[in-house]
Amino acid sequence: MKAIVMKSPGGPEVLQLQDLPEPKLTRNTDMLVRVKAAGVNPVDTKMRANPKAYPGPIAPVLGCDGAGVVQVVGSAVTGFEPGDEVYYSQGPVRDRPGSYAEAALVDYRLAAKKPKRMSFTDAAAAPLVLITAWEALHDRTGIQSWSKVLVHAGAGGVGHVAIQLARIAGAEVCTTVGSTEKAEFARSFGANHTINYREKDFVEAVLDWTGGQGVDIAFDTVGGKTLAQTFSAVRYYGDVVTLLAPGPEMDWSVPRVRNQRVSFELMLIPVFFDLPEAMSHQGGILRQCTELFEARELRIHVDKTFPLEHAAEAHALVASGKTKGKVVLTVD
Prior knowledge:
Blueprint lengths: L1 E5 L8 E5 L10 E11 L1 H8 L15 E9 L11 E5 L13 E5 L3 E3 L6 H5 L2 H14 L7 E4 L5 H12 L3 E6 L2 H9 L4 E4 L5 H8 L5 E6 L3 H7 L3 E9 L10 H5 L3 E4 L4 H4 L3 H19 L7 E6 L3 H10 L5 E5 L2
Parallel strand pairs: 8-9, 8-11, 9-10, 11-12, 12-13, 14-15
Antiparallel strand pairs: 1-2, 3-4, 3-6, 3-15, 4-5, 5-7
Helix pairs in contact: 3-4, 3-10
């Protein structure tokens, strides 16, 4: 099979198209999936640049998101059979090559039937960002219909999904963006209020929006200085969820005196540490999102597609920060 192989850690140029043997089932929970499309995420570029930063050995074939057709199922697989169209998110950890290939082994607990109204391309863009945003908003913070939510980088892959999931829950959403174009994009997905962080202090803007109280929930997808400033935009006893690891220089005095709850979200943890119940939970999230897609309450924006052999170009584009929504590799 054709696959994109990471020859060594480094820049996008280390991604090369190669012929590899097709994977064989190694666990009774495996499915062999003929990949039709693979999502490209910022975490893929980070794994490529520094695979040792993650808690498990990273496989040389990257790609967490995928959509395709089931070919073979293991003896313990339930709910799927050959011919089913599926989408899934499974990190390229240890003996689990990722989705940048014509075929992939997928644990069935991490998969769901592909929404019928979605193309393979759109479906491949969805799982990682859906699960990330769902776990952050529902599992970490228990979002409510009365919640006021701040989503950072609302025009990004995770951001534009988080806005929608928060609105579906009945919450009000403000989001940070870097341009007028991205502000319009975020509003088209349901943001009530947008803040151009290049022109305004987002903390002041959030406090103005909330009458000085601060939001109930802040979802940080940026980290660093942005996370440090975010605490001041969240009310007393509010929630802050971040995707990034705070550095040793982080000042925790504001969340401490505000009695804020700080949570972390790395949706690949179930795969890194082989946690069956957490895997099943993520598959369940995808099944719930399938219903939302079918009801046209949820949608994914694919900004650009590349053929599989142009994975290096896709990585360079994702790393540039110039995209809206997602980038996808198509597999013939």
